[in-house]
Amino acid sequence: MWLSNFEIVLQDRVIERGAVRIEDGLIADISERPVEEAEIDGRGQLLLPGFVDMHGDMIEKDVEPRVNVRMPIELGVYDLDKKLAACGVTTAYAAVAFTPATYGHLRSVEHTRAMIETLASMRDELLIDHRIHGRFEVTFLPALKEAKALIDADALHLISLMDHTPGQGQYRDIELHIANTAKVKKISETQAAELVKQRMAARSEHGDSMDIINGLAELARQSDVVLASHDDDTIEKVVLLHSLGAAISEFPINVAAAAEAKRLGLATAMGAPNALRGLSYSGNLSAREAYEAGVLDILASDYHPSAILPAVVALAEIGEGGLAASVALASANPAKALGLHDRGSIAKGMRADLVIAERGRVPRLRSTIRGGRTVWSDGSIKSLSGA
Q: For 32, which DSSP code?
């Protein structure tokens, strides 16, 4: 079928009024002008490649929406699937955490393993393509065993190495971290300070974490699984992770770390909510600042997938490459970094993973197409044939 009369965002430019033909789930042709035999008339709306989301934290909250309120994992997966489809995400990496038990029940090893197994068993019946992003805290002693088991089961597609110890990385600003902990946990700052102190002491008890870091990096290399660093705050840390084979630096803390990652050939990733708001909730590098500095490659949903569309539209206003360059942050760039060469752009032979949207007062999703099939629509996109 033909989708015609759209503003089509290609990887390097925008067609003001064109058409795309879909055949057997692939993009078969692209026209620089509208075609008469179209089944869908876009009325000038945007046609974008489907978003490839490499880091979304939502599955844990969809399964346990309140503390100690556990929903069936299958229900949480279905809810997340619908949410992502409605936000234009056609390929999603569920970021599930493997951390020491002190981090709470929500991220217990057993619960995390159960979520992964359930999601893997449901992949064929879901609206979009779901994959697993294993986030391994470098103080998590069974990390190698858990990662290998997942790889053997073909249930691990991305590994990131995390260290959330206060005083470095995401929580370099300890005072801000204490204040945020107090707000989240609804306790006094004195109590929060004691919790942070305990976290720092527990980290020192683990000693050198390089055995875990080196082991996971080697496992990723052997298994052809993409490796990412996390919360890089120094040039030295970026250099180390690059030497271990990391391909992505997600959520660099400052411009210096992001610039070094770019220099070494790592793709830099930041959150769409950060880009939309213009600031990091933890007081670190602004995604807008990173984009203006030319050191941002990928936008991920992080914790709020509906932020992706308005974020790429907002960044188009401040970047030299316009909409083509900003949309690539959520499509072509992550697809390339993750080794997904069959998707991420509107081009002949690529998967027909597409998003129909309108700019409006707030950019708005109208329909999501995966593999040539509409998987979500708000009802505003009508077939001219009436089908």
A: S
User: For the chain, what is the total number of helices (H) and then of strands (E)?
Assistant: 14, 16
The Cα–Cα gap between 297 and 304 comes to 19
∠ CA 130-135-140, nearest 5°, is 145
Length of the chain, in residues: 387
Spell out a b/e string for 169-196, using b for 16 or more CB atoms within 10 Å of the CB, else e.
bbbbbeeebbebbbeeeeeeeeebbebb
User: Rounded to whole angstroms, how far apart are CA atoms 352 and 18?
Assistant: 16
Listed in sequence order, the DSSP H helices in the chain are 58-63, 73-86, 109-122, 143-152, 174-185, 189-206, 210-223, 235-243, 255-264, 272-277, 287-292, 308-316, 322-328, 332-337
Whether 224 and 156 have beta carbons less than 8 Å apart is answered as no
The values of phi and psi at residue 229, to 5°, are: -90, 170
**Alpha carbon of 107 to those of 67, 104, 114, 253, 367: distances in Å?**
12, 6, 11, 24, 33
**Looking at this protein, which amino acid is placed at residue 141?**
L
302, 287 Cβ separation under 8 angstroms: no
pTM: 0.89
From residue 66, alpha-carbon distances to 83, 95, 197 in Å are 18, 19, 26
Nearest CA to 283 out of 190, 202, 382, 179 is that of: 179
Q: What is the pLDDT of residues 190-248, one digit of tens each?
A: 877 777 666 656 655 555 588 899 999 999 999 999 999 999 989 999 999 999 999 99
Query: What distance in Å separates the CA atoms of residue 165 and residue 162, rounded to the nearest whole number?
Result: 9
Q: Is 37 left (phi over 0), alpha (psi -120 to 50) or beta?
A: alpha
At 158-199, the pLDDT tens digits run 999 988 565 555 666 667 656 766 776 777 878 777 776 666
Alpha-carbon distance of 89 to 117, in angstroms, equals 21
Judge whether 275 and 288 are in contact, CB under 8 Å: yes
- Name the DSSP letter for residue 243: H
d(CA 367, CA 352): 13
Residue 300 · residue 54 · CB < 8 Å: yes
Give the residue among 49, 327, 263, 282 at the shortest CA–CA distance from 176.
Answer: 282
State the pLDDT at residue 106: 52
